[in-house]
Every structure is written in C-alpha cells, then in structure tokens.
Design goal:
mainly alpha; Chorismate Mutase Domain, subunit A; 3 helices; 0% strand
Length: 102
Amino acid sequence: MTDIRKPDDCTTMADVRLGVDAVDRELIALLGQRFGYMRAAARIKPERGQVRDEGRKAQVIAQAREEAKRFGIPDALVADLWETLVEGSIAYELEHFEQKRD
C-alpha cells in the first residue's frame, strides 16, 4: 500500500493526487452512509409531505457553512455543495418513500 502523506508533507504532485484520491474514496463512503440515513428516513416518515422539510434543510446548510468556516475553507462553496447534496438527498428519500408504499 502506498503511503498517503498529509497535505503539508506532500512534495510531489503524485503525493497530492494520491491524497486527493484517498479523500475522495472516504467522501464516497461517507456519502453512502448519509444516503443510508435517507433510506431510514423514508422508512420512518409516515407521510410523503414530511420528506421535504425546508426548516431542516436550512439548518443542515447553515451547519455545513459554520463547519467550513471552522476549517478555514470557502463557506459559500460548501453551502452551494450542501444545497445540491440536500436536494439530491430529498429526491433520493422521496424515491425510497414511494417504493416502500408501492
């Protein structure tokens, strides 16, 4: 297995690319876990109208934005990414909600 260096320890573009690829794999695994929670929500929520919760959506995006600030990364970009993630999650949850009731 290739040694993955921390960003500050990278000395070549090969080091950087190995690190980025490793982080991407971890992000995909975490997204898989997150979408598992969307399947659980689809199973638990009794009514279709509960799938979309604008208050919760705003809270999730605000929390992501605050975490981005804490880590010193562009919070506006993170908010945009989370907008897409949350909307995709709602669509995914709705699809699973409908499948469970067919």
